[in-house]
């Protein structure tokens, strides 16, 4: 998140409005200013499956804030940016407060850099965990396990994958999961005729992202990640994992260096996973 600093702002009126596909080129320019690796296609996907606000000044996008609603109880937030020349005039607060209002009382989850913590804490968010970003060119030769319980997903698996995702996240995300599955390659673990985990790899940013990865154990999560990495040799790969599951050293052994981390926060009630299902890797830091 770009944080407001004390500086003079140009006295040109700004307008807060819902984000539309016509705003994508301006939003892309903002994320490039921040050094974020989003492509235009990544912004288009985010806008298609989510909701958001933009600040416009003289026809130019100067700020964005996105959210994704999961049922009536939960939402995630992210892609919150204010251009450097517009910081210091309360634009970040205006955007974020508008976004919170648009979530209609849902509990809101987000991932914050150190710079954004103060703003979010003032809005009632509390920290509950850490998300670690690993990435790099995949130069280590990775082979998929020969186990016969890991396979490519088919269209007929979608409903079971969506149900497993809800168990792992504690949130109903059928539209998001369907969109991610349509955009990427999906592997599943099937045991005794049921889906016991899944992983998606798709084009994103500088190369590919592996996530979401949901499973019933860290070992199963590693097997699903390996199934995806086996097809990505030589590609730039990113994966964002929860620190609590201890996958970091293993990912580094595969050549995916730890390049940063963010603080997982929630305003309201944190969703609760069902049984042993857990989310190990995120689709990205905004979607959850």
UniProtKB/TrEMBL annotation:
InterPro entries: Acyl/Acetyltrans_Enzymes, Acyl_CoA_acyltransferase, GNAT_dom, YitH/HolE_GNAT
SUPFAM superfamilies: Acyl-CoA N-acyltransferases (Nat)
Single GO MF descriptor: acyltransferase activity, transferring groups other than amino-acyl groups
Pfam hit, one: Acetyltransf_18
UniProt-listed Gene3D superfamilies: 3.40.630.30, 3.40.630.90
Domain (N-acetyltransferase): residue spans on this chain: 14-147
Superkingdom classification of source: Bacteria
Name of the molecule in the record: N-acetyltransferase domain-containing protein
Source organism of this protein record: Mesorhizobium muleiense
């Amino acid at each position: 998140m770009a944080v407001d600093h004390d500086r003079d702002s140009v006295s040109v009126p700004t307008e807060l409005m819902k984000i539309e596909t016509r705003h994508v080129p301006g939003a892309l320019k903002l994320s490039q200013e921040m050094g974020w690796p989003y492509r235009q296609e990544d912004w288009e996907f985010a806008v298609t499956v989510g909701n958001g606000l933009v600040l416009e000044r003289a026809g130019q996008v100067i700020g964005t804030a996105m959210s994704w609603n999961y049922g009536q109880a939960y939402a995630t937030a992210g892609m919150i940016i204010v251009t450097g020349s517009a910081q210091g005039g309360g634009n970040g607060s205006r955007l974020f407060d508008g976004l919170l209002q648009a979530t209609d009382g849902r509990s809101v989850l987000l991932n914050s850099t150190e710079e954004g913590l103060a703003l979010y804490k003032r809005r009632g968010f509390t920290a509950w965990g850490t998300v670690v970003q690993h990435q790099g060119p995949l130069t280590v030769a990775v082979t998929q396990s020969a186990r016969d319980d890991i396979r490519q997903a088919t269209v007929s698996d979608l409903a079971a994958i969506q149900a497993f995702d809800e168990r792992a996240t504690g949130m109903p995300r059928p539209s998001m999961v369907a969109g991610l599955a349509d955009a990427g390659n999906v592997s599943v673990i099937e045991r005794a005729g049921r889906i016991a985990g899944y992983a998606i790899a798709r084009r994103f940013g500088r190369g590919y992202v592996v996530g979401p990865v949901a499973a019933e154990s860290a070992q199963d999560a590693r097997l699903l990640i390996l199934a995806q990495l086996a097809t990505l040799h030589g590609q730039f790969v990113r994966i964002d994992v929860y620190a609590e599951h201890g996958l970091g050293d293993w990912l580094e052994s595969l050549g995916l260096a730890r390049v940063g981390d963010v603080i997982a926060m929630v305003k309201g009630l944190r969703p609760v996973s069902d049984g042993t299902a857990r989310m190990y890797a995120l689709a990205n830091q905004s979607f959850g």
